[in-house]
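Handoff note, outgoing to incoming analyst
You'll be picking up this chain. Sequence as last confirmed:
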Amino acid sequence: MRIYITTQGARIIREGSHLLVRKGNDTYHTLFAAKLSQVIICGRVELTPAALQLLLRQGVDTVFLTRDGRYLGRLATPESKNVFLRKKQFALLDDREFALGFCRRVLYGKLTSQAVLLMRISRTRRAKDARARANEIRNLIKRLEGADTIDQLRGLEGRAGALYFQGLQRGLLQSFGFCRRVRRPPTDPVNAVLSLLYTFLFNRVYSAIRQANLDPYAGFLHTPDYGRFSLVMDLMEEFRTIIADTLTLSLFNLKVLQQEDFSIEQPEPETSMPVPDAESVDVVRDKYGLMTETSENRVFDLPPQRMDNDILEKEEEDNRGKPAVKLTPQAFKRVVENFERKLTTEIHHPVEDRKMTYNDAIVAQAHLFRQVLEGTRKVYEPLILK
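Most recent structure output, in case you need it:
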C-alpha cells in the first residue's frame, strides 16, 4: 500500500506496530507499517524518531517532496546484499556495445509510444499536423540503429521530443497556454501537471529498481553523475508517454482539471495540499492511455527528459523571475488520486504474456532489465503503447 501525507503541519507518530498521522488532537490516518510499501510525505510534515525507526525497520520506501511536488530525497533503506549483481551492473557501464544496445531499445520504446499517441490524436482530433509529427518521429526511429554513440542517440531523442510536444498540444480540447515543454518553473497548467506526474512516476520507478536489487545510480542513457539516479531516469522513459502524458490529456479533456484549478505564484511561495479522497472522475478508461485500442463508446479523453545540468541551468536562467503555475490544493488531490487509479489499470504485458497493472508492469520492467544484466535474457524489451 502507498500513502501520500499532504496535510501541512501534521505529525507522524508511532503507536505500537502502526503509525498515526495527527494534527492537533485530530487523527487523520492509522497506518499499519507491515502493509506499507511506500510513504510519500509532501511539505511540512513532522516525522518523529520512533516513527522513522519503524519505517526503516520495515523497509518502507519513504519519499520527501515539497508541497508542490518537487523531489527532495528519501530515507536510505539497507542496500541489497547481492554484491555480484551490483559489480556486474557497474562493469557494464564501460561496455560500449551493451550500453548502445540498451539505449537503442529504451529509445525505440519511448519514440514508438510517442508516435502512436500522436497518431491517436490525429485520428481523434483530425489533426494533420499531429500525424506529420508522428511520421517525422518514425523517421527518427529508423535512424536509431545507425547511431554508433550514445550522444547521437540522445540527439535523436531530443529532436523527437521537440516534435512530440508540438503534436501533443493538439490532443488538448483547450490549449491552456501549452505549446512546449517548460520545466523550471512550469509556466502553464499542462506543464505543471506533467512535472508533477513525472515526479510521481520517478518515485515509482525508483521503488521498482530497488525491489529488483539494482543500483539506481548506474544508468546508461542518462550519464552517471554525482547524485544522479541515472538508471531510474533510463527506465522511466518508456512510461512517460504511456502513463503521465496520456493521463495529463485525460485530466484536462475530461475537465477534471480546469483553469481555476491553478494559481500563478512567484517562485518562493508554495501551495499546500490536502489528503487525497476517493471522489474523482474515472480517467483511466481513456482511448489514449490503454495499451490497446478501445471501443468507440469510450470517452476521449523529477525531471526533464534528460537530466543534463547544462540544460537545467539554461532553463532556470531563461525562466528566472517568471511566475510559476501551480496546482491548487484540491486540484493536487485529484491528480494524486487519478495517478494511483491509472496505475491500477490492467494491460497485457507482452513479455510476461499475462495481464497485469501498470504498477506491476513497472516492477516487471525493472526485473527484465536485471535479467539482461545477468545474461539470462539477450535483449531489453520496452513497453510500447499499442
